[in-house]
Amino acid sequence: MAILPTLYGHVQLSFRSHIKQLEYGLQVSPYLANTIRQCTRKLTLVSRQSGTHWVANDVRFLLQITQRVESLHFHDFHVLMVEHVCQVASALPLLKHLEFRYCNLAAEVMPSSPIRNTQLGDGTTDALEQPKFSQTSYLTLVWTDFSSSAISTLLRHLPGLQVVDFGANHNRIYSANDSAIFSLSQYCPKVQVLHVGLQQVREITLCETIRLYGSSLTCLDVKCDSVQTLKAVAAHAESLQELTVRAAGPGSYGDDMIHVLRQCKGLGKLEMVCWMLEDVPRCVWRAIEAVSRRAKQSIRNRDNVDANWMYFLEDHVDRLQVSSSGHGQTSASEDGSDRVQDLYSTSDSWNNTTLPSVVRSRRRRDVGSIKKTVALSFEELSEIRKEVIPSP
Question: Are 91 and 43 in contact (CB under 8 A)?
Fold first, then answer.
């Protein structure tokens, strides 16, 4: 019984038979009901059967006791009505994170029958009149398609979003992805972290979104069709702490990236994905080399200190052994002279010391024959700023 709080911290439901079994268990076991009420923080609904009506109907009993759920996930729904999502979310007062994986979101533009809200006494409230979920601050979409009306309806109910991750999808509805970014800027004014991996998003829409959020953005991950995206970042998103720019079009971005580094003085992490080698500014390579040289020197100094300390300990042990054996003289090999010669040999071990392979692959990993992904840390960005920002 002691393991139940851990097991029911995350409840995942997929088959109606499992839902019925859980419903029966809650009726006959007050301890199970109390455990779910106190410990369940994550609820995942997975579609394993055709139809999605069970989302709003069969799970209703569970929503009455899962009042502490903070994360709600929907997986593998071929057609998931946004109205049903809103009905489930409205029953979770502490909901913070909403995630969709491998789903297809749809909306009833003109519902043929009202979606009843069990939270209200009359039961006649339709989807458009459902309350907004201001407490939900995190939205994730992973390989999830949607119509323009569906994503607009969903975002209209989430005005408190602060972290938004629009992952790539296979959306075949014209302009739906672009409408998602436009609707986000219209209905969600508090966004601070924005990841846009959607295809078919117009650059003018991205630039306008960056302009609207402005200095409230602290983390941004977008594609760059031309230098206009970098110009928008430099002009409006000066408070950025993390920036990922994925090159998606021809053109030279070097000068505009330097302008971004000048304007975003608090930038602590920068990643340039799929950039042509000639587009990466020279100051970036110089900064990487300078930081690498300092790191090697630091490793060398540390190894020398460690080697001297080990020599001292070994020499001390040898002297104790000599004194305990009663011998007054020792040979050259016994008094440590050979170790001193090895210690200061011209073939220092630091010459063979390199950065860890993981760090090296993160810094410059190949993405083809002429494109690179370059990730810069705070130390390297500080080195670049010394060069591109004139001292007062």
Answer: no
SS3 376: strand
* Chain CA centroid to CA 370, Å: 27
What does DSSP assign to residue 258? Answer: H
- The pLDDT mean for the chain works out to 80
Q: What is the pLDDT of residues 103-122, one digit of tens each?
A: 999 998 644 333 344 443 34
| Residues 6 or more apart in contact with residue 359 via CB below 8 angstroms | none
* DSSP-assigned letters across all residues of 27-75: HH-HHHHHHHHHH--EEEEE--SS-SHHHHTTTHHHHTT-TT--EEEEE
Outline where the chain has alpha helix (H): 4-7, 16-28, 30-39, 53-56, 60-63, 82-89, 148-156, 176-187, 203-213, 227-236, 254-263, 282-325, 337-343, 357-363, 378-388
The three-class DSSP label of residue 242 is strand
Token pair listed for 357: 């392979």
- Measured CA to CA, the distance from residue 365 to residue 373 in angstroms comes to 6
CA quadruple 119, 97, 66, 51: dihedral sign: positive
Q: Residue 366: how many CA atoms within 13 Å on its side-chain side?
A: 3
3-class state of residue 252 by DSSP? coil
Kindly tell me the sign of the dihedral angle through the C-alpha atoms of 54, 58, 59, 64: positive
Which residues, in sequence order, are bridge partners of residue 106? 81
pTM of the model: 0.77
d(CA 302, CA 297): 9
Would you tell me how many other CB atoms lie within 10 Å of the CB of residue 345? Answer: 9
Q: Are 63 and 92 in contact (CB under 8 A)?
A: yes
What's the alpha-carbon Rg for the chain, to the nearest Å?
30
Place of tokens 């709600």: 72
